[in-house]
User: Fold these one by one.
Assistant:
Number 1:
Amino acid sequence: MSIGSVLFAVCTWIEATPLAVSITESEWMFPTIETTHVLALTLVVGSIAMLDLRLLGVSTRTMGAMQLSDEVLPWTWSAFTVAAITGSLMFASAATKYYSNIPFRIKMGLLLLAGINMAIFHRGAWRTVHDWNETVPAPHAVRVAAGLSLVFWIGVVVAGRWVGFV
């Protein structure tokens, strides 16, 4: 058995769970979940963009990176949790369709890249934030991470919209 056939079998099982069937058969559950997902993703991307644009030196030039981070990251993580839950519910309702949907795979890949970028940033450049907290623009490595973050998250939004049209 190939890994692809195993993954497809898992998707088939997920799609047949009572919760997934309920979402599929309901007239209001999927649209409600999708609306909540879009709103949560808007908060995620918007709050990340605020910090990334500050790190790039484009906006919020009068606030230190640490202060802005302290203010927006609780919103980011809360909204990300909601987006992950609602995204998982939408996936469950049509797992086999999403599994073979190329834009969905691109979206998941970009989410993974955004997470890797964030992990590298926080294990590297962010550790020296006290040295450049008020500096505008931030050091080169910080700006690279912020620029990549914007590209990845914009890609997540574009691919996410594309999913529904394929």
Note: The mean pLDDT is 95.
Number 2:
Amino acid sequence: MVWVAVHVIDIVLWCIIAFSVGYIFFYAITYALGQLLIIKREPTPDDIRQKKYLVIFPAYGEDKVILHTVKSFLLQHYPHDKYSVVVVSDHMLKETNTELSKLPITLLQPQFENSSKAKALQFAIDNIHDNFDNIVILDADNIVQPDFLEKLNEISNQGFSAIQCHRCAKNAENQIAQLDGISEEINNSLFRKGHNNIGLSSALIGSGMCFDYLWFKAHVHLLSTAGEDREIEKMLLIEHIYIKYVEDIDVFDEKVGNEDNFQLQRQRWMSAQLNCLLSMMKNLPTSIVHLNVNYIDKTIQQMLIPRSMLLVSTFVWALLMSVFEMSWAYKWWGLFALTSLSLWIAIPRKMRNGGLAQLITHLPRLTWRMMSNIRHIDSENREFIHTSHE
């Protein structure tokens, strides 16, 4: 009787995990097929209109990085009268604000009792009284190339009103930062490039985002959680607005370099994922009736188990089953192999090197710390969790 119960639990658990593994395997294949195909870039009109951009840097306690970031951005080749930079300085030092005020930017200094990125964006929109075509959202540590706005404007002129740029690692000083960078690229492959390759919307990532200004202005005050990027994505998908992922517009982002920040970051993401799932379920029946495939896909995406947990859990369970009942273990080893293959495909070729095996040794400990976040998940996700820079 006990063995029957254990067998039932084993099968149910396998089915739950297999759902997530099947999803990432499918999009690993769509990503890989897209890499094999020669995709011609859409022709660019000679008379591209130079749109006007509002560039916002929400900055909470970002004294270590914000000055360098803003000075770097001001080196854009794009005409200076066609873009405005706004820094929302929240809980930053007086000395930092003094230096920022010397730059050709708009410096806003709100006094939020409970800070969040959503509040910073809302404050910026409320206090900027000018007309723009597009809005760009960057994090305080994001570095871009001097042709960033030129490339973005080219894509925008092709008719895309929601754009996600290629966010990638700007640092790899230790193995934690390297793992975080690889994780980001896996997500780019599966949830952005892999989706766009079959005509589905890219996922947003929180920075390196560009939206139609009037659309954003009309929707920004609907943001209410610390997972503002998922809220924006939900609103776009409800309105059938396609999100374009642009692989060749890089936004260099600082990766977390220690385990504490890694855990805090994942806690924020897990809370945002749960909150987004609960929120999206309300509109799921209507989306099914109207065949809103992007919305259905995004809802399913919120149900997925994190990739590192999939890799570690399938391996551990396969080992356990090999000890207790080998005939039950085969399906787990198959799942582990499929998970490993999916992640391998999703890792860009330049990152597949000899050091990858050594990086993987950190996964069990980091995954355990991630699992400890489960008891801290906030289903409402209104608490702002800030990860400091090294």
Note: The chain is about 50% helix and 10% strand.
